[in-house]
């Protein structure tokens, strides 16, 4: 059963070493993310699953506890691990995709409980009829399940945004943030996958996996932060 969820954006710029001189601009978002992840530890889960959007998975990629990740591709000599390090995985296993590397970094910034941990790379294009069953499966995988759900809103909020300006971007992000803050699973399930793809929304599939996991859980949500620095929508929320 799902007992808690934290929802955070996942730009590599969230990591101060990657952001370098621009790091202070995201300090409020970082602080909100740490608060959200703290809700997960307080829920004392039996299992934590970190969901992160990916562009190159056929469906869902699984990353066990101890999987290493790195920000070297962003010019920073910084490595992370999903939970406690595992020497065998470090030597021979896969590397975390960028979104899950950000998730691993966030967990390292909090007093995380020693619960079994797994990462899932969820394809950004995963359709709703795959997202909801995956969420239900995760919720049924332990007595007390917590989710760290990563994903950004639209990357088309301004003319300087990565995808340039689209007037539909802000209304989409506003509706998504409202649903995330209210723990409104029906509203999350109703998000338009085609529109999300047009608006370069990376978080849609992970949010809809959460919608499936939270069905009938009776969780309450709180929106901790919403903004769009660099023309990309970021929302931080906690469900408990």
How would you characterize the overall build of this protein?
This protein is 35% helix and 22% strand. It is of the alpha/beta class and 240 residues long. The protein has one domain (2-239): Protocatechuate 4,5-dioxygenase, Chain B (3-Layer(aba) Sandwich), CATH 3.40.830. The strands form 2 sheets. A 7-stranded mixed β-sheet has the order 3-6-2-7-1-9-8, sandwiched between helices. Strand 4 (68-70) and strand 5 form a beta hairpin. The protein is globular and about 50 Å long. 49% of the residues are buried. The model has no long low-confidence stretch (mean pLDDT 93).
TL;DR?
The chain is of the alpha/beta class and about 240 residues long. Helices cover about 35% and strands about 20% of the residues. The radius of gyration is 16 Å and the shape is globular.
- H/E series, N to C? EHHEEEEHHEHEHHHHEE
Strand content: 15-25%
Class inferred from helices and paired strands: alpha/beta
Major β-sheet strand ordering = 3-6-2-7-1-9-8
Question: What's the Cα radius of gyration?
Answer: 16 Å
| Helix count, DSSP H or I runs of 4 or more residues | 9
Topology:
Blueprint: E1 2-8, H1 16-19, H2 27-42, E2 47-54, E3 60-64, E4 68-70, E5 79-81, H3 87-92, H4 98-108, E6 117-123, H5 128-139, E7 145-150, H6 169-182, H7 185-189, H8 193-198, H9 204-213, E8 221-227, E9 234-239
Parallel strand pairs: 1-7, 2-6, 2-7
Antiparallel strand pairs: 1-9, 3-6, 4-5, 8-9
Helix pairs in contact: 5-9
Properties at a glance:
single chain, 240 residues, alpha/beta, Protocatechuate 4,5-dioxygenase, Chain B, seven-stranded mixed sheet, 35% helix, globular
